[in-house]
Amino acid sequence: MTNIRIFWLISDHHCLPTPPPLCTQVGVRAHRWRLLFCRATASPKPEVNLLLTRVCRASLAINGARRILHILGVKLHVDSAQSSVFAAKGGPATVPCRFWYEPEFSSPREVRVKWSWQPAAGGHETDVLVAFGSRTRTFGEFRGRVELRQDFPGDAALVLTELQLNDTGRYRCEVVDGLEDKSISVNLELQGVVFPYQHPRGRYHMSFLGAQQACEDQGATLATFTQLLQAWKEGLHWCNAGWLADGTVQYPITQPRTSCGGHGLAPGVRSYGRRQLRLHRYDVFCFTSSFRGRVYYLQPSDKMNLTEARQACQELGAEIARVGQLFAAWKFAGLDHCEAGWLADGSVRYPITRPRTNCGPAEPGVRTFGFPPPQQKHGVYCYRADLTFSIKINI
To answer: What does the alpha-carbon distance between residue 233 and residue 200 come to, in Å, rounded to a whole number?
Structure first.
């Protein structure tokens, strides 16, 4: 019979009242720790020295404490199958995360899983969800919209429902087992569209807070630099500078010229840097995603002024569409209609996916006639929420 020597590292607090059977206390103390030396009997094999350092960190719930054994000789791994997840506004999303051990344990272990979130525009991390065993707690705006999937051992994926525009950002999955702590980060992005927006009084009339409110009023949020850069790569060209979510002012140029990005300079996203949020005035770049619902053009027998247009949509159980909804319908549902109509902000616009003669410029987009007097007569774009959610996401 061969002796296997095992070292136990046990805290003075909330630990076993006596050493395990066949173990002898050596009596060596280092700060708050006691070192125990254990001799056990095993089958005939060459003598093996095992350093299985275990930490007692809590005790049983019965006496108001809990006990967790942490084996430092086993390595904890945390990983994700995706570095980024794409989803749509109003729909669900699953942010993958899994953990495992090397070597594996013969039975599952209770670990602490914590999900935190950093907004796409930057800022501090905030807690989303914390789970330990069967107990789960959610926080803030995520309360009631998130849960841990747990489909298989080691599955710590975060499931979100009813996604909002502000849910984009970096999600961090942290797994804690005793003294071991590993984490992985995954970006959540909404497939969306960036659109420039001006105040009804014209160019450069919005502070940062005013720009933020303008986007929210149109079913959108302030675009991030990453979103604006992607829009520029897809062809967005706009010569007026606008606020972004991080407080910078920038604008995308695909065809530079003297008064628009500089003659002879390369295309790109031009930046004015950070501006004073309350003092300076610019336009804004908003971001919106697909949505639950449908935007459609309505024109009764006679065209309508703005007040009549609102009433016409309401009589059909709908509401007058917002600018963000029209852009999302153009981008994701392929809305194409060569007649201008009222929108909720008092502007008149129309969406084109198939440019053609007598229907605006040669590029697809949402055309605008600005903010005409509310007495003018036009059709109207209405929005109606649907119970089903069938927008396809193309990655």
So the answer is: 28
- CA dist 189 and 82 (Å) reads 12
CATH code, 192-288: 3.10.100.10
H/E stretch holding 221? strand 221-222
Which residue has tokens 């605006």? 360
The counts of H helices and E strands in the chain are: 4, 29
Asked if residues 194 and 287 have their Cβ atoms less than 8 Å apart, the reply is yes
Q: Is the pLDDT of residue 262 over 90?
A: no
| Alpha-helical runs (H) found in the chain | 208-217, 225-233, 306-315, 323-332
Measured at the CA of 19, the angle between CA 17 and CA 25, to 5 degrees, comes to: 120
pTM over the 0.85 mark: no
- Looking at residue 41, its pLDDT comes to 36
Q: In the CATH scheme, what is the homologous superfamily, with its name and number, of domain 290-384? A: Mannose-Binding Protein A, subunit A (3.10.100.10)
Strands 283-289 and 242-243: parallel
pLDDT bucket at 35, cuts 50 / 70 / 90 = very low
